[in-house]
Design goal:
The complex is a heterodimer of chains A (334) and B (437). Chain A is an all-alpha fold and 334 residues long. Chain A is built from 15 helices and two strands. Helix content of chain A is 70%, strand content 2%. In chain A, helix 1 runs antiparallel to helix 12, helix 5 packs across helix 10 and helix 7 runs antiparallel to helix 10. The model of chain A has no long low-confidence stretch (mean pLDDT 85). With 437 residues, chain B is an all-alpha fold. Chain B contains 18 helices and no strands. The N terminus of chain B is likely disordered. Classes of the chains: A mainly alpha (334), B mainly alpha (437). The interface between A and B is large, with 53 and 50 residues.
Amino acid sequence: MNELVFFINNVVIAGSVTGSIYAIGAVGVTLVFSIMRFAHFAHADMMTFGAFMVLLLTLLFPSAGSAVGLPTAVVMLPLAMLLTATLAVGIDRAFYKPLRAHGVKPIVMVIASLGVTLMLQGLIRLFAGTGGQSLYIDDRKEIFRLALPFEGVRAPIVITEPQIILFVLTIAAVVGLHLFLSRSRLGKAMRAMSDNPDLAQASGINTNLIVAVTWVIAGGLAAIAGTLLSLDVTFKPDLSFFILLPIFAAAIVGGVGHPFGAIAGGFVVGFAETLAVFNWSVLLRPFRDSLPEWLAQAGNLAFVGTEYKIVVPFFILVAILVWRPTGIFKGKVI
Amino acid sequence: MSTQHSDRRADLVAAPAHFPRREVALFSALLVAVLGVYALMGTAYSTRMLVEAACYAILALGLTIQWGYAGQFNAGVMGFVALGGFSAMAFSVPVNEAFWASELPGELGLALLYLVAAVLVVFGATRLDRLGVPRRLRTLIAVALAVVLYIAVIGTLRGVTDQIESRVDFVGGLGLPPWLGWIVGGALAGGVGYFIGKICLGLRSDYLAIATLGIAEIIKAFLKNSDWLTRGTATVSPLPWPTPGPAELGFTLARALYLSLTAVLIALIFFLLHRAYHAPWGRMIRAIRDNEISAAAMGKDINRRRLEIFVLGCILMGIGGGVLGTFNSLFDPQGYLPLNHTFLVLVMVILGGPGNNLGTIFGAVAVYIIWIMSEPLALFLMELAVSVGESAFGWEVVGNLDSRALQARVFVIGLLITLVLRFAPKGLLPEKVIHHG
């Protein structure tokens, strides 16, 4: 049973954490993809920017959280979302809109977004340095240990406070997004534009407004994802290219243009990563006596070492592009 | 036949040739800049800069045929450069006698044989449906076999590589001339490019960018963590040069010799690309880039042509990476950075003129000079800002100022990319499109 608890701690909880972060990131990517029709490479650095804003605000008001009973970083999140959304809209106005007006190919927009990535990276590292930093300035990371009421189980299930906040926020974001896209007028207009931009414009939808709203949502979600990632581990300014691949893989696995597909894709990629680096020999230990010797003696049965974690999303990406380029939920091939 | 050669049809004549004013002006400015660097920084330093710029020119030529000729965007130049550098290292470094004297080469060979056998067995399992096995069952068998064999083979391989690391440090090189490594590096990069291109080129162009970005990070992770093959973070140096090294001739002369070698290489590549560009093949590639549908309607095999040009570009990047790695005389997998080896090359191409080989070479040298000179400039500006800040506002100086100042260059490269795309999308020396009729 201890092994099972170990499995829950290292796969179920860790996988859900990574999965939620990838899912929220992938939703932003897929929204931009479906409205503006290009892969937005600067998304990972928008996440970092959001986390950095949270860090700055937390440094400015270190004790704001204790008044509410939550970590200060979480209290500052809405403000950071607002700032990141403003940044996203500003970037669009300054860099993407003129290119769109020229009617360039989508791949040129991709290159422009790489330029934006570098600019954001440069700015963030210029001010934040290159080292890691914890978002918990004054607060203490609460760790909950749930002991299981079974005979012979010594190891408790461990879950930390930021992980609980993460699950709550993910569910809130998903439900909010669903209500927005399916009930509100703007959300319906967004879906119309993702289906057929020309028709949407002809039927009187203000496409400029939709683009701006998309950036606001993408920026806000990026801020949430970046902050949650930094809360779970630490704030690192140089994550971008490592987080970009799993997020894109998640968006493509779910089918480009499907927000809910992106969420599913995020969990697929997150769990695949944790399952691939999990050492399966731990689970075999209770059956040691009944196994053939070569299997019982194997010390390390992980599929890939943690240093090759990035191979997993790439492998998933390749597999989905080969077998089902439209994604599991039949996204658009735009 | 002779009449066809002498009087060309009127509608095939290109726009009237005039004096290439723009080219002459830009290249003279470049010459002045190079001479300025020589006057300021001394010959040894400046020659090193020129050699590195020449290596980058090879990389840029590789990217310009992908992006300029065919409109494919490769965001993972770094990976192909690293492969070339690795291959140059593996071929040219002296033989590690301790490794070859032990029984380890045999064990390694056996493990690799197991790997090949496992791949063949899994491949065979995917073809089981031809023997009448239902397709679903075949998929199940193939996946199960792949998982089991993967674990078995990787376990064996891990055992051997751990032995190599602990007993003989690493496998060492082959002690062969470096140019052989460059060629094999090009072939390796081309092989990886074929694999990526095969998957992505039939799909939306963004997917290629995502996949190349990923494969570059994977190649880097592999080279960094395979200590038995590359010594990983411990780095391998020195790599022997194909020309006499600095120990025999002194820095300036040795580097000048290396520079002439790279110049010959560039001239060769330039000539071949020039011929290809004006050949029917080049016209076909541009036709596909400019109007895919009509090219397909003319009966061109679009995906195959795209794959050809993508692989060709990757081969050039591999060769360039090999030349660069040998010149640095150091193989350090951590030294391969997306900024230095992907985005710098991208800026060179889009600033110089995608699709125009001359413009690309101009862009490579010009951007590299700016890049090298911006390092002292960024430090100087940062110190200036700090001293002003200290005296005027009483700022406190933060630590690691140097590393932060260098981050400003990241910002400048990004800004340059977006500005060029917006205001000079065809670059400083645009591709000359020949209009017929």
